[in-house]
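Changelog-adjacent note: as of this version, every example in the card shows the full chain rather than a window. The one below runs 439 residues end to end.
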Amino acid sequence: MKKYCVIVLCLLCSIAAMAQGTDTLVFHTVEVDPTIVHGTLNVRPTGEVQVGWRVSVTATPDENYHLESVTVHKTTEPNVTVELVEEHFVMPDFDVMVTAVFESDLPLIEGEITAPAAICAGGSLELTAPVVQLADSQGWEMAPNDSFQHPTAYTDQPLDASYNGWKLRYWASNRTGTVYSNVVGITVNEVKEVTIAGDAMGCTMQECEYSVRKEVGLNYSWEVSDASATVTVNSNTVKVCWSTAGTQKVSVLAENPTTGCSANAELSVKVQSYVNPSDLNAIVAKKHNGKEYILIYPNPKDHYRYQWYKDGQKIAGANGQYYYQEGGLDAGVYKLYLSFNADANGNLFGGAFTADYIVSVVSKLDIYPNPAQEGDNLVVVNELGNEVEVAIYSMEGRLVHRQTVSGTQAVLSIDLMKGIYMVRLSDGNSNKVQKIIIK
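Full-length structure tokens:
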């Protein structure tokens, strides 16, 4: 920054007058421009100053500003100027105004920016802006090369693989000018487009194969919309044994474990059934040997083939119109697949499933101690641990307490007086009514 230093005042006015051979002294006014901003201007002397005197000027900018110019001009005619030499001017034979212009310093970008981490095509860069001082505006910009002749502003937009190798920098600007950070490169990774090959038509209980082009270094993850289908995955190939007719989806995710980048593809498959599900009958259950239940498919058509399922899995050897389990049926969801077709291995295809038949577990509900002493805690025993509503009635039929509990052993928050009560326990599937005695 340039400063104009104070200069000692010059010759006495009387000596100047004697040099001119006259006793007349001429004075004019020196003023300092009151509109000066971002700095101060010290002029000595000011006010009425004799013509021919030396007037000193000192300009001091504010912090982060510098002196751009100092001008001395005729007060009434700004285009008439007075020469300023070595921080002083000689007072002319007219009134003058002294003014200065202070400009802000260029912005400052502290340190260098670091290269951003590589992203996957379609992702956005995670950037940390540098510390900037004295800027009115700032931001990121990128360009295809180091020249930055036609830069593009970067504001978190997704980038595709065409931006790989582009350059990035940070800029900061104010009225004085613009400064730039160092330049770093952009790395955008991608996985080549994935296309699923395979038949878009299929039948229920028929195994179909789907695949993608094998790429070195990629991992493949398959997904099938048919939740009941049997799926066998072998790297870039999947075999699907369809279970449900209708439009199904096969999708694959190809991922590069090194870069974390991925691409996916989806194939729509029309799965047909030779047996119309609306023509199927519902499974019924009948007592067997007077105590154990047997599941039956009623009124079958000729040449039906059968395969029983429990909880979505085939029941080995259960290939008839009936299904019986010695000792009683286990709890679960049962259904039957019917078809007229089977492959060489006996697997059915082109058929349909019946509606689900649900076998529920009957839970044990109890309350103890019984009899209980007055003040004892009553505990509800529930083998399933699900919610149980407890209703306690007096022998006159008046409800004295109602509470919903859960857990295999739940303590009731009640203090019953001595007497006999009726308790109803209900878990939504079963009910139990019993008498308890409080002594």
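Structural remarks: Residues 13-19 form the longest helix (7 residues).
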